[in-house]
Amino acid sequence: MNAFYWGSLALVGAVTLQWTDRRHWLTGHLFLFAAGALLLSAYHRFSAQASPLWQFIIVGMKVLAYGLLPIIILVVAVSFVRYSYRLIRKEGWHFHYSLLAIVGVLMILMLGLSVVNFEGWHSRRLWQLLGLALLLTAFFAFSFLAYLVACLTTRLGLPRKIDHVIVLGAGLMPDGRPTRTLSYRLKTAAKVYRDQRRKYHQPVTIVVSGGQGSDEVVAESTAMRRYLVAMGIPRDVIQEENRSTSTRENLRFSHELIVKKAPFYHAVMVTSDYHVLRANILARQLSLNLTGIGARTPWYYLPFAMFREYLALILMYRWTNLFAVLGLGLWYVLELVKLV
């Protein structure tokens, strides 16, 4: 069983999962694995039949790739640090804004230790530890790329007729106005509402979901309702859900509010583009027939938002990721024992 076999199997699994229920992070993993395995199979087939000239080019490309890898890692690490610095200057200090900088510093530390060990220390044990660190870095990089792929696949689907639009909250400004992220969600919800009314000519209710935080002057739902009314949405088509403090509660409490009047409702939820995947997963876990629509995110905020969302997914699947890390670590140790 070669790479083509495993790649084909992963592709079939990804397409099946996407067709039956696109609200899975696993779909991104399977599509990404399938692409890598099929490309590897194609490379092996091509290199086995390549002329001497192409063999020389392939070897040169491999050497170039190995030489560029440390430079790419360094550039990415420095970019992480610079981005965190600029975000903190723009938004003010919060620890979570420094997370990307911490990752960047760890990557630079790995490169620095590799250089020092190569030039002077020549510690075999350190090479082994750096190899394990590189393996785990590759694992988390793969799962992050899978998150990006799943962010795209989870939003694929045919438009459908709905009777409810659920808007998930995203914080308020100190004066009680929606944040820029939340305003984009509300604008997207207003567009969905108008498109549905124009296309199907039936009533559509907008449920604005969000409670009042300890540092907020009003409930998010109230600020969201005012914003939509100011955009020209009729007040009587807006319902407030003002108890929730998390995405899970947004979905559960909104569902409880809707089913009182419409037990067999058809709805979509509007959230930010980076957040659609996790919201879809939570809806699936709650057995709700909901799919998400993504609103745009300010470009300066998007890298941090995606990284934070990825960490939230890691925590959501903490046991799966822990077993994967332990499994990789055990495999690595066994391979080292074989070499000894």
UniProtKB/TrEMBL annotation:
Domain DUF218: residue ranges: 163-311
GO biological process: Gram-negative-bacterium-type cell wall biogenesis; peptidoglycan metabolic process
CC annotations in GO: plasma membrane
Entry keywords, A to Z: Membrane, Transmembrane, Transmembrane helix
InterPro entries given in the database record: Cell_Envelope_Assoc, DUF218, Rossmann-like_a/b/a_fold
Transmembrane segments: 25-43, 63-85, 97-118, 130-152, 310-334
Pfam families named in the record: DUF218 (PF02698)
Keyword Ligase: no
Protein's recorded name: YdcF family protein
